[in-house]
Amino acid sequence: MARRAAGRRLTKRDFEAISELRYQIRRFLRFSERAVREAGITPLQYALLLHVRGFPGPDRPTIAGLAERLQAQHHGVVALVSRCEALGLVVKRPGRVDRREVRVRLAAKGERYLQRLALLHRAELRALSRAFGVARLATFNDEDRRRGN
User: Fold this and answer.
1) Which of 8, 71, 83, 110 could disulfide-link to 106, CB 3.0 to 4.6 Å?
2) What is the pLDDT of residues 47-71, one digit of tens each?
3) Backbone phi, then psi, for 116, in 5-degree steps?
């Protein structure tokens, strides 16, 4: 949900910073889409594998937790997990405390896909961080502070 505008007009530099951020994000996503398709899975399957492995905390993620991370509907994630399980990428298990709850973990095949693709993504993120530069974000934030916003 968008926050209410701060009541000041944005400068050309502000628009350039926002434009650059969106450009770099889209560039990264396009790289990611190509890389995962070349590896033989879909971008959504890769996102699921990534969120299963990178889910915060010690517990394996639930369908509800994955739905939040993927910003998707619960029933859509149920279908995605089922398709990935059929491909041998993930394994579903009932929760220990609440047997109605479904927990998801990576299968060995999913772990292999994820490791290979995550290495490519890490290298691309490093290149992206050099291209975008943390200094640009810091400058954008510093200008806001100077203006009192």
Assistant:
1) 110
2) 999 999 999 988 899 999 999 999 9
3) -65, -45
Query: Whole domain around residue 75: which residue ranges?
Result: 12-147
In a domain, 5, yes or no: no
* Structural domain count, the chain: 1
How many residues would you count in the chain? 149
pTM of the predicted model over 0.85: no
Is residue 20 one of the residues assigned to a domain?
A: yes
Tokens at 30, concatenated:
């396009």
DSSP 44-62: HHHHHHHHHHT-SSSSPPB
* Domain assignment of residue 4, yes or no: no
Residue 99's pLDDT is 82
Q: CB atoms < 10 A from the CB of 13, how many? A: 12
Q: What is the CATH number of the domain that holds 44?
A: 1.10.10.10
The H or E element that residue 91 is part of is strand 90-94
Contact predicate 120/35, CB 8 Å: yes
